[in-house]
Protein: ADP-ribose pyrophosphatase
Amino acid sequence: METPQLIKVDQVSDGWIKKYVLTYRLPNGREFAYEAVSRKKYDAYLEELRNMASDAPHMQAPDAVCIVPRTRSNELVLVREFRYPLNSWCIAFPAGLVEPGESLESAVERELSEETGYALARDEQGCAHVNPLSQPGFSSAGMSEETVQVVYVHVEDELACEPHTEPTECIEVFKIAVPDVPHFLETNTTPIGTRAQLILEAFSRNVQRYGA
Structure:
């Protein structure tokens, strides 16, 4: 199928989240305006859109990380966070934005400490095993170009420090033993983020199939 062609990009609002109107020419020749949002400023956003349309797009550093922490005792560390756009608490894995120039491991370690107080488990050589998925995924491709890198890590059983969140962040940390994940999914009534839901479902099916 022929690819729609981007004709122009107009920024229509500013702020932490910026709104853009993207005008495309469809394969039938009709022009079509599509609303999108981004944290990026105009020039960076336009560059990203052009990069994505190239024959060999360069995979940029992810905008954010989603951390799946598993303790040495086989427990998953999650958060229950009040999400203002939902006006509700929401269950998720620890996550946050990657700072400019920050390595993936540094972002994981910082966000993990800030939101949960847990530290990466290290082997006898002092190495942490940070296992990202093969590529970042898009948070909400129908609305934004934001990418999130899901990373699986092992953490120590006990807190390394107290969480140090932003004053406006309302976050509670809790753990689920991996064998208890199926029961948790069956009985949970708190809204849950899609990534957490999919990851927990994968653990649940593994437990049901292999018992671990």
Observations:
- The mean pLDDT is 94.
- The first helix runs from residue 42 to 53.
